[in-house]
Design goal:
Belongs to the plant dirigent protein family. There is one protein chain. The protein has strands at about 1-5, 15-25, 35-40, 50-60, 65-75, 80-90, 95-105. It has a seven-stranded antiparallel β-sheet with strand order 1-2-3-4-5-6-7, with no helix packed on it. It is mostly beta strands. It has one domain: Allene oxide cyclase-like (AOC barrel-like, Beta Barrel). The radius of gyration is 14 Å and the shape is globular.
């Protein structure tokens, strides 16, 4: 289970705009590949109370990972698209990471 700050940028000083909430589990025996479900839940501004949901395979050590947007809520109801994840910082000792997600989304 995860609940992490959702910020505008990867820096610790970046403005918080919501929470990244979800779960992941190991999905590969040969590499660090996760099955991940995550909601980007917005708590400020125009998108306050809205969310974008992703579900897919996250090959953690790939430079860029792509996962589908499967829906959303509020202003992102009926959302479709994809997200690209890029790791900025990873500490193998603690498992802590800072990941940037770029979201390409269409909604109606």
């Amino acid at each position: 289970m995860i609940e992490n700050p959702l910020t505008l940028g990867p820096e610790l000083s970046s403005k918080a705009v919501g929470k990244a909430q979800g779960f992941y589990g190991m999905a590969s025996q040969e590499e660090l590949g996760l099955l991940m479900a995550m909601n980007f839940f917005f708590t400020t501004g125009k998108y306050n109370g809205s969310s974008i949901t992703i579900l897919g395979r996250n090959a953690v050590f790939d430079h860029v990972r792509e996962m589908p947007v499967i829906g959303g809520s509020g202003l992102f109801r009926w959302a479709r698209g994809y997200v690209q994840g890029r790791t900025h910082v990873f500490d193998p000792k603690s498992g802590a990471a800072t990941v940037e997600y770029t979201i390409y989304v269409m909604n109606y």
